[in-house]
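Cast an eye over my tokenised protein here and flag anything odd:

===
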Amino acid sequence: MQRTARLLALIAGLCACALATQALAQKYPARPVKIMVGFSAGGPVDVVARIIGDRLGAKLGQPFVVENRAGANGMIAAEGVAHADADGYTVLACNSSTITLNKTLFKDIRYDPQADFAPLTTVVSAPLVLVVNPENPKTADIKTVADLVAAAKAAPGALAYGSGGNGNLAHLAMELLSQRAGIRMIHVPYRGGAASEVGILAQEVLAVFDPLSAVPLVKAGKLRALAVSSAERLPSLPDVPTVAEAGYPGFDLSFWVGFFMPKATPAPILETLHREIVTAARDPAVAEKLGSQGVVSVLSPADYATKIAKETKELAEVVAAANIKAE
């Protein structure tokens, strides 16, 4: 009898938990939700967060308020979300570096990107474009990745490439290519991607993994695109191969923006926000707005977690092999 009573009590408890969880999901959100952004207003992460936040607010009936806590490559906002109450009312919008790079580059990081967060989905992905200057006599004949690799092998450690700074994704992309191709080039760090773009136009460096701002320059003939860093070709440059297609299988490195919540957030809330963010990103009107920041790209939480683990491991190996130090 006692065993039966305990069993019935256990079943009743489980039913009560299930009903409570269902009720939680049904009434969520019951108050405004905060979206933490670790970068300044007007930047890619902020723009994406506000576009998605506006749509979530309209759909779910409560404001999704963006709060900018800029600094430390997104670490201030990420730490705040990692240690926030896991009640569904604090969301992190961040870029790939905050999740896949900071733990490798910075010793004073106070959050664990994989242990402290539940991934929801990416929203946009912005590949880098490997470019040279066709007006530079030193690169006038370089028209493919193979040409660039051959030139670098002919002059080991003599050719210079630019990036937006030490530890910048463009820096890591070129180091990854160099390691895969067995070449050595000189790294010239600039203060941001825009400055490195100016550097290649001024013929200060021979090659750059440029952000999507390179696309108009490529179409105008000011820069020549050799490849894109993503696994798939860029719709705006359909004739430009991927680095993988150019001879380096598995090469896939892009700047992405995605959403996370504290790890212990109830599953129904995670499922609700994942579903609504994906639905919003796929809406044609929203996708058009997001297009200014990259290619719309959504993932299941499981696929997102796999992507993060792969990129984190790969980038840590690149950083270690190249002895890269954060600025």
